[in-house]
Design brief:
The protein is of the alpha/beta class. It contains eleven helices and 14 strands. Helix 4 links the parallel strand 4 and strand 5. It binds ligand NAX. InterPro entries: L-lactate/malate_DH, Lactate/malate_DH_C, Lactate/malate_DH_N, Lactate_DH/Glyco_Ohase_4_C, Malate_DH_type2, NAD(P)-bd_dom_sf.
């Protein structure tokens, strides 16, 4: 059998953690033949640690054949030790009366510390996925705080937005989600993101030949995908958890095991293509193979798309400027 991979998960006692850990332990993220060790981080707070212990008791009670160990941590320097994969889910949510600027600042402190810890103790090829919001900027901060690790290994989660867009397009076109390829969500994981189906195919046919409805694109598709997080909170009274965990699994599984030639969306540090300044963590189409991703290049960007892509970029640059003095 293969040697176990170490998967660190932060915010492990939170609601996404609860929807995520059991699926990782069941082999849904790294493969049904891949043993795993879970290294779980929570804040030192007594209640959080007690809740984390309860989650571990339930993991124990599943007797997962692939789960070779689980440890609880309150310090990122022990949680990230030798980690092969790090899922940074825990973050400070916006509290009452908190400005966006304050949110950026408290999270910058968390992700600076976690980036440094990854830099010092994780596997030299650790693959990092940031889920905790503001995800792109948190990933940027962690990347900047880990100069000894490859920047390309720091990614942010746009996959939930990608999956949401797949379902909206499938419903409009009357096809199965599995028949859609080449969908993209550009930019920031925020309502400014730009879901783009100009290159998509439906069962091999250009999506634009089936769904040629500019009004639907502008006034239904883009806002529905962009505001889906808020719609879930409104309906459930809680933010997306199972679908977020599912997207995290999709993201890491495809990154490590490959996307079989299909396009998937990942937030990755820009290499300068599409006019996105180098290093900005931006959602782009990628194809993954053998543990690496390659950005799909040279797609034509029309005037409407340029405008949308610059709009979401502007927000990311503002977030970056807001934390510059802390890095
Ligand atoms: P919860 O509040 O249920 O859980 C978060 C957990 O993280 C808590 O148990 C908390 O104690 C812990 N935590 C906070 N700071 C920590 C730190 N410094 N180290 C370790 N643990 C820490 O939130 P949940 O619903 O699980 O959501 C987690 C994050 O995902 C939030 O920031 C949320 O905004 C973000 N999301 C991101 C999505 C995306 O697509 N990128 C979608 C879903 C979700 O909204």
């Amino acid at each position: 059998t293969k040697p176990a991979l170490r998967v660190a998960v932060t915010g492990a006692a939170g609601q996404i953690g609860y929807a995520l850990l059991f699926r990782i332990a069941a082999g849904e993220m790294l493969g049904k033949d891949q043993p795993v060790i879970l290294q779980l981080l929570e804040i030192p707070d007594e209640k959080a640690q007690k809740a984390l212990n309860g989650v571990i008791m339930e993991l124990d009670d599943c007797a997962f054949p692939l789960l070779q160990g689980v440890t609880a941590h309150s310090d990122p320097r022990t949680a990230f030790k030798d980690a092969d994969v790090a899922l940074l889910v825990g973050a400070r949510p916006r509290g009452p009366g908190m400005e966006r600027k304050d949110l950026l600042t408290v999270n910058a402190q968390i992700f600076t510390a976690q980036g440094k810890a990854l830099n010092d103790v994780a596997s030299r090829n650790v693959k990092v996925l940031v889920v905790g919001n503001p995800a792109n900027t948190n990933a940027y901060i962690a990347m900047k705080s880990a100069p000894d690790l490859p920047s390309r290994n720091f990614t942010a989660m746009l996959r939930l937005d990608h999956n949401r867009a797949l379902t909206q397009l499938a419903a409009k076109a009357g096809v199965a989600v599995s028949e859609i390829e080449k969908l993209i969500v550009w930019g920031n994981h925020s309502p400014t993101m730009y879901p783009d189906f100009r290159f998509a195919t439906l069962a091999g046919k250009p999506a634009l030949s089936v769904v040629n409805d500019d009004d639907w694109n502008r006034n239904v598709f883009i806002p529905t995908v962009g505001k889906r997080g808020a719609a879930i909170i409104d309906a459930r009274g809680l933010s997306s958890a199972a679908s977020a965990a599912n997207a995290a699994i999709d993201h890491v599984r495809d990154w490590i095991l490959g996307s079989n030639g299909k396009w998937v969306t990942m937030g990755v540090p820009s290499d300068g293509s599409y006019g996105i300044p180098e290093g900005v963590i931006y959602g782009v189409p990628v194809i993954t193979k053998n543990g690496e991703y390659a950005v799909v290049k040279d797609l034509e960007i029309d005037a409407f798309s340029r405008e949308r892509m610059d709009f979401t970029l502007k927000e990311l640059l503002e977030e970056r400027d807001g934390v510059k003095h802390l890095l």
